[in-house]
């Protein structure tokens, strides 16, 4: 029996290149990619996606929708790395650590939507706490995150590594219209009933993310403490291979967070910081936007789907 055929549509972008590099030397699958002259040929792409066992789409949102619409072969399974289907009811959300049942759901799914980079950190922190009732679902949530410039795709890489790199901004906050496309995904998949405030930024480093969520203890149920929030995260991720929860003692010893600390890995590190005197708590996530935030999650989902065949 031939090994599964995996088609990467969009293997020249930042995420697609990373996925291709991770899969190209594997002997348990066959890779299908299109040569440069055929990458934008709709007929060739449709032929390729209908030939494969699993397609990984690393495309802009509309192109991803078009690619899915071109599928006529009912046996084709899809992992979509774009944001086109992340809140779609017919697609399985590809965050394996989200719940105990999620790996099995991904393994059996025909259509899997890879999580966004920022939502990976936000949902990873919030969903267990909301489900446990420790944080109200209508909490006025504020989320801030700083990503490496590769999060902007090839445009960001060119800005910081190309001919005009000397003029690239060292830091920039964006999404000032408060309509970032990741917000509906964060709200739906974490379980918030109210739209969170999300403020993203890019820094002058290639990859890595630090995401922070401030929490006021006075807005939580009486008696809920940082220790309880931390214990909940520890319990939820006790058996998670790619999610680390830093101990409260380790967190207390830190004075800074390095967004690049987990670069080159597929892990996310969650932490809880507190100030007893002020009643303020800070939830944080550090991870590689090209690892657990993109290619790492896609390959993790691919492996689950291959195991579930």
SSE inventory with pairings:
Blueprint: E1 5-9, H1 14-23, E2 30-32, H2 42-51, E3 54-57, H3 61-69, E4 77-80, E5 92-93, H4 102-108, E6 111-113, H5 117-131, E7 142-148, H6 154-161, E8 171-173, H7 183-190, E9 197-203, E10 209-216, H8 226-236, E11 243-245, H9 248-253, E12 268-275, E13 280-287, H10 291-307
Parallel strand pairs: 1-2, 1-3, 3-4, 4-6, 5-6, 7-9, 11-12
Antiparallel strand pairs: 7-10, 8-9, 10-13, 12-13
Shape: globular
Find the CATH superfamily of the largest domain. Answer: Dihydrodipicolinate Reductase, domain 2
Largest sheet: 7 strands, mixed
Q: Could you give the count of β-strands?
A: 13
Q: How many separate domains make up the residues?
A: 2
Could you tell me the radius of gyration in angstroms?
A: 20 Å
How are the strands of the biggest sheet laid out side by side?
8-9-7-10-13-12-11
Number of helices: 10
């Amino acid at each position: 029996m031939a090994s599964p055929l995996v088609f990467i549509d969009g293997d020249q972008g930042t995420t697609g290149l990373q996925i291709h590099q991770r899969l190209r030397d594997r002997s348990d699958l066959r890779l299908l990619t299109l040569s440069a002259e055929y990458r934008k040929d709709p007929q060739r792409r449709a032929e390729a996606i209908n030939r494969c066992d699993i397609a990984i789409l690393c495309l802009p949102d509309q192109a991803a929708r078009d690619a899915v619409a071109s599928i006529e072969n009912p046996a084709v399974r899809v992992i979509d790395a774009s944001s086109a289907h992340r809140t779609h009811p017919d697609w399985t959300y590809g965050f394996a650590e989200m719940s105990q049942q999620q790996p099995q759901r991904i393994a059996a799914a025909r259509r899997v939507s890879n999580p966004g980079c920022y939502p990976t950190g936000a949902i990873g922190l919030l969903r267990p706490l909301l489900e446990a009732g420790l944080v109200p679902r209508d909490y006025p949530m504020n989320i801030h995150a700083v990503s490496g410039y590769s999060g902007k795709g090839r445009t960001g890489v060119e800005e910081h590594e190309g001919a005009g790199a000397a003029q690239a901004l060292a830091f920039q906050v964006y999404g000032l219209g408060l309509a970032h496309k990741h917000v509906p995904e964060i709200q739906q998949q974490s379980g918030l009933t109210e739209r969170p405030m999300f403020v993203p930024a890019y820094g002058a480093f290639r990859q890595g993310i630090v995401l922070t969520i401030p929490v006021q203890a006075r807005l939580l149920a009486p008696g809920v403490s940082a220790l309880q929030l931390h214990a909940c995260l520890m319990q939820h991720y006790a058996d998670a291979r790619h999610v680390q929860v830093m101990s409260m003692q380790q967190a207390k010893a830190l004075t800074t967070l390095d967004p690049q600390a987990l670069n080159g890995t597929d892990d996310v590190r969650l932490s809880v910081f507190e100030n007893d005197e002020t009643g303020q708590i800070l939830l944080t996530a550090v991870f590689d936007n090209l690892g657990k935030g993109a290619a790492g999650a896609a390959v993790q989902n691919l492996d689950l789907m291959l195991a579930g065949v």
